[in-house]
Write a structure and sequence with these properties.
Radius of gyration: 15 Å
CATH class: Mainly Beta
Low-confidence stretches: 5-10
Largest sheet: 4 strands, antiparallel
Distance between the termini: 43 Å
Number of domains: 1
Number of strands: 8
CATH architecture: Beta Barrel
Structural class: mainly beta
Helix content: under 10%
Strand order of the largest sheet: 1-2-3-4
């Protein structure tokens, strides 16, 4: 049996652009009612990617906001999808740059979620 998708159930919740990020990467992560994702391009001056958060507004729409704009130095570039541990701590990786230039795995983005 082949499942049938009803197109009426699918809708666009966000369309990214260069300032908010471009080239969505990997999957999305659901946490505490929000959707988190990354882009491999766009964002700041160096356009090295963005970690973004989509939050429902209660009226069927989503509010988008960048959590972090990667600058390609110590914070890395070309991020991969993020994960949360059981305690709600955020972890992510970037496949290039970082302290030694070979990418990084970090939970330093956690502080950016405060107040969101």
């Amino acid at each position: 049996m082949t499942p049938t998708l009803k197109p009426s159930l699918l809708s666009t919740v966000f369309t990214d652009g260069s300032a908010d990020g471009a080239v969505p990467a990997g999957g999305l992560t659901f946490h505490s009612g929000s959707i988190f994702g990354v882009t491999n391009e766009g964002g700041g001056f160096n356009e090295d990617g963005v970690l973004f958060q989509l939050t429902p507004d209660g009226n069927g729409k989503w509010n988008e906001g960048p959590v972090h704009v990667f600058e390609g130095e110590a914070d890395g570039a070309v991020p991969s999808p993020v994960i949360f541990d059981a305690a709600g701590n955020l972890y992510g990786e970037a496949v290039s740059f970082g302290e030694y230039g070979y990418g990084l795995i970090s939970n330093s983005l956690q502080s950016r979620l405060a107040g969101r």
